Amino acid sequence: MTNSSTKYGAAIAISAMAIAAPALVGRAEQGGAATQAAVRYGEIPAGAYAVVAEVRAKPGMEEKLREATLPLVAQVRNEPRNLVYFLHEDRAAPGHFIFYEIFASEADFKAHNATPHVQAWFARLPELAEGGVAVTHMQLRGNTP
Predict the structure, then answer these.
(1) What digits encode the pLDDT tens for the residues 64-104?
(2) Which of 131, 142, 145 is nearest to 53 (CA)?
(3) Is residue 15 very low, low, confident or very high in pLDDT (cuts 50, 70, 90)?
(4) CA 58, CA 78: separation in Å to the nearest integer?
(5) Partner of 100 for a Cys bridge, out of 86, 114, 126, 133, CB 3.0 to 4.6 A?
(6) How far is residue 67's CA from residue 6's CA, in Å, rounded to a whole number?
(7) Tell me, what DSSP letter sits at residue 112?
(8) The model's pTM
């Protein structure tokens, strides 16, 4: 398997795992407190917008990138139009992170990228990451009951 097929194979496996298994997704309640609600793939609308994003830490910056990235999980899961948000770290290559994200629409994904917490994270990437974020825009398939 080539590097690119390994990369895409991993992304496909993550996508399949994230959609097929129930995901815990935070939702904002009154007062802003987050709850965990089970989201099942049958509840994800047909027009939902999914992305797989990938970022790699610069050598020696793995822990700092991890520390900067982990808070995004709760913050993004509390965004009102976020449906699924998973952060993965490669067990064989610490500091290699893959995000699997589903939003209600492409406009919601763009709004997510404009939030203060995501913009603050993007601002840290030149210091912490090699080459920024690689994003693959995905279309959900086979997600009908």
Answers:
(1) 999 999 999 999 999 999 999 999 999 999 999 999 999 99
(2) 131
(3) very low
(4) 29
(5) 86
(6) 26
(7) H
(8) 0.74
For 52-100, the DSSP string reads: EEEEEEPTT-HHHHHHHHHHHHHHHHTSTTEEEEEEEE-SSSTTEEEEE
Scan for tokens 């993965």, then name that residue: 88
Helix 62-77 to helix 116-128 angle, to the nearest 10 degrees? 170
Q: Spell out the residues 6+ positions from residue 92 whose beta carbon is closer than 8 angstroms to its own.
A: none
Cα dist from 36 to 57, 78, 102, whole Å? 29, 10, 16
Q: Which helix (H) or strand (E) holds 24?
A: strand 23-28
Q: Which of 48, 35, 57 is nearest to 100 (CA)?
A: 48
Cβ neighbours of residue 53 closer than 8 Å, sequence gap 6 or more:
98, 99, 101, 133, 134, 135, 136
Q: Identify the three-state secondary structure at position 36.
A: strand
Phi, psi of 30 (to 5 degrees): -60, 140
Instruction: Count how many residues are written for the chain.
Output: 145
